[in-house]
Amino acid sequence: MSKLIYYVAATMDGYIATEDHGLGWLEAFTLGDDATPYDEFYQGIGAAIMGAGTYEWIMKNTSGDWPYQDIPSFILSSRNISIPPGISAVVTHTSTNDIAAEARAAAKGKNVWMIGGGKTAASFADAGELQQLFITTIPIFLGSGIRVLPVNKPIHVTSDKRRFLRSGAIETIMDIKW
Ligand SMILES: NC(=O)c1ccc[n+]([C@@H]2O[C@H](COP(=O)([O-])OP(=O)(O)OC[C@H]3O[C@@H](n4cnc5c(N)ncnc54)[C@H](OP(=O)(O)O)[C@@H]3O)[C@@H](O)[C@H]2O)c1
Questions:
Q1: pLDDT tens, 25-44?
Q2: Ligand 1 center from residue 113 Cα (angstroms)
Q3: Ligand 1 centroid vs 126 CA: distance in angstroms?
Q4: Ligand 1 pocket check: which of 120, 140, 151 to mutate, most ligand atoms within 8 Å of Cβ?
Q5: Tens digit of pLDDT for each residue in 94-105?
Q6: Is residue 148 domain-resident?
Q7: Distance between CA atoms of 10 and 7, rounded to whole angstroms?
Q8: pLDDT tens digits along 103-143
Q9: pLDDT, tens digit, for every residue of 43-84?
Q10: Contact residues of ligand 1, CB 6 A cut-off
Q11: Continuous H helices in 43-116
Q12: CA of 153 to the centre of ligand 1 (A)
């Protein structure tokens, strides 16, 4: 069955961005060629889900060059955000369970990338819709920021896939135990 995978980079103290949405700490870091290639992950993805905060960060920082053009994206927002023409994305605010079902159907047998941010990923974890986390931990502490997965209840995970990269980063693939 198609999985919802939260594939994300986080700091050692569990943040995915600074309080003011800065990702300079991540952009300045070189993962190295022993990291799992992004393309290898992306080939298994058929649809994406993200929150309004992440959508707005992408639009501000990629000069409108939508990075996920070949897959349908579902953007969660209670606001009437308008998507520029040519971007294969819809804005939705139905239940997390309905959005997960829609995204799985749109992925046509492939997995669904939960792009983030933390608030959106946590709401899907709380609703029992997240199956896997693929976290690349960058060897840096920020002290504060946007949390990687601020769930409302404990989420238990199992992991037998952890790789220590030469750069000092750590890749951890975790399955959520339901
Ligand atoms: N390090 C990484 O790999 C990585 C990956 C992804 C994102 N990020 C960063 O994370 C930051 C955004 O993360 P975030 O946690 O603040 O925001 P987010 O999860 O991207 O977006 C949260 C917003 O989505 C909307 N929303 C609607 N329904 C929701 C639901 N059921 N659950 C949660 N949100 C819902 C709300 O906006 P409305 O007011 O519009 O309803 C909410 O404020 C950005 O700075 C981004 O760059 C980093």
A1: 999 999 999 999 999 999 99
A2: 14
A3: 15
A4: 120
A5: 999 999 999 999
A6: yes
A7: 10
A8: 999 999 999 999 999 999 999 999 999 999 999 999 999 99
A9: 999 999 999 999 999 999 988 789 999 999 999 999 999 999
A10: 8-9, 16-17, 21, 23, 26, 50-54, 57, 76-79, 93, 96, 115-120, 123, 146
A11: 52-61, 96-106
A12: 19
Domain count, the chain: 1
Domain at 138, CATH number = 3.40.430.10
**Is 25 a domain residue?**
yes
Compute the distance from residue 146 Cα to the ligand 1 centre, in Å.
Answer: 9
**Domain contains 3:** no
DSSP state for residue 144 in the 8-state scheme: S
Atom 25, ligand 1: residue with shortest CA distance: 77
Q: Residue-wise over 150-171: b if at least 16 C-beta within 10 A, else e?
A: eeeeebeeeeeeeeebeeebeb
- Is 15 a domain residue? yes
Query: CA–CA separation, 89 vs 75, rounded Å?
Result: 7
